[in-house]
Amino acid sequence: MTTATITTFRAKAPLTEIQFCAWVAQALPGDRLEYHRGFLVLDTFPGLSKLGDNERTELALLGKRAFWTEGQGLVHLVQERLGPDLFSYLAIARPKTRGTVDAVTQLAAVAA
Questions:
Q1: Residue 95 is part of a domain; what is its CATH number?
Q2: Residue 39 and residue 49: Cα distance in Å, rounded?
Q3: Which site among 25, 27, 30, 98 is 20 to 30 Å from 9 CA-CA?
Q4: Edge-to-edge strands of the sheet including 32-38?
Q5: Could you tell me the residue range of the domain that residue 45 belongs to?
């Protein structure tokens, strides 16, 4: 029986939409990226978030892009509960297919 090693990439600083796009475009199937740690819906909501306006806007863009890439079949999106109101938001790369070529090209253009 073989054992697979699973590695999750975690950014030291908050991830931007462009960095997320670059990761998705080059990720191998099964690669995992923690694109946010916190409570995404609250962290993007004015008045509830502890983030500044620019950080909150960037996080909202990142969340929308993550959802878009999932819809294009490029990643699976998963949440891992770490504690009360604390989640790890993960993108797990899916195999790239002929059907996802256009989406990868769009991501590469955003990341360039």
A1: 1.10.10
A2: 9
A3: 98
A4: 8-10, 32-38, 86-93, 75-83
A5: 13-111
- Domain assignment present for 22: yes
Q: What is the pTM of this model?
A: 0.84
Query: Is 100 inside any structural domain?
Result: yes
Whether the Cβ atoms of residue 35 and residue 15 lie closer than 8 Å to each other? yes
Q: Which residues contact 93 (CB under 8 A, 6 or more apart)?
A: 24, 27, 28, 29, 30, 31, 32, 33, 74, 75
Residue 19's pLDDT is what? 93
Q: Helix, strand or coil for residue 44? A: coil
Burial zone of 110 (CB within 10 Å; 0-12 exposed, 13-18 middle, 19+ buried): middle
Number of domains in the chain: 1
Kindly report the backbone phi and psi dihedral angles of residue 10, in degrees, each rounded to the nearest multiple of 5, phi listed first.
Answer: -125, 130
